[in-house]
């Protein structure tokens, strides 16, 4: 079975998939070359990332099966070691003329669908659990450590909610941030931010928010197990109301 190695980028993955179709491979393995997997038996090909080829593949997928299919493929790409399943998905769409929904329900792609849903759930939860702090007038900062590299997927949601504010979403696990300046999104390397820079009002806002929630709470109806089902403990360090 041929093994195609790519450079871990989404563009690189699309190029690897394009090459698999070009050589008419039905059974193929696509791996991230940084994992260092080698084979003495199988044919190994190092795929070069070509932005033009990647763009063509992207546009072809979008034109044939829509933006939702592109979105699902990208979510699957974020889940480690899912590249070969993504190829199988596109192979079914192309060779068997299946619809995107039919292909995802195929017995061989059950795992792919589960991984897409896993990434989707994490995105949805961060929509609700991300907390912004004012670092200077009209500039709001949030940090988090998502299991998957979600920043470019979640920032459009917050831009649509707060279009007239400057936003910084900082992935402290991967040491980079997305900065929105009310015009464009810029991605920048960011190791750590000194939270002593918080505006004079921020601490007061946080205390008022905690006090507000405290007064809303009905002690007799507190259910820790139910709370953890909707708000898993791994999110608590990033939620101001869960801090003492």
Order of helices and strands: EHEEHHHHHEEHEEEHH
Helical amount: 40-55%
Q: Helical region count?
A: 9
Mean pLDDT: 85
The main pleated sheet reads as:
5 strands, mixed
The backbone outline, from C-alpha atoms, is: elongated
Q: Termini separation (Å)?
A: 56 Å
Structural class: alpha/beta
User: Which sequence of strands runs across the widest sheet?
Assistant: 4-5-6-7-8
Proportion of residues in extended strands: 15-25%
What's the count of strands?
8
Q: How would you describe the overall organization of this protein?
A:
This protein has 244 residues and is α/β, with parallel strands linked by helices. It has 2 domains: 3-120, no CATH class; 130-242, no CATH class. 45% of the residues lie in helices and 15% in strands. The chain has helices at residues 10-22, 51-65, 67-78, 83-95, 100-104, 110-129, 151-161, 202-216, 224-230; strands at residues 3-6, 29-32, 44-46, 133-136, 139-144, 166-171, 176-180, 185-189. It has a 5-stranded mixed beta sheet, covered by helices on one side. Strands 2-1-3 form a 3-stranded parallel beta sheet. The chain is elongated and about 55 Å long.
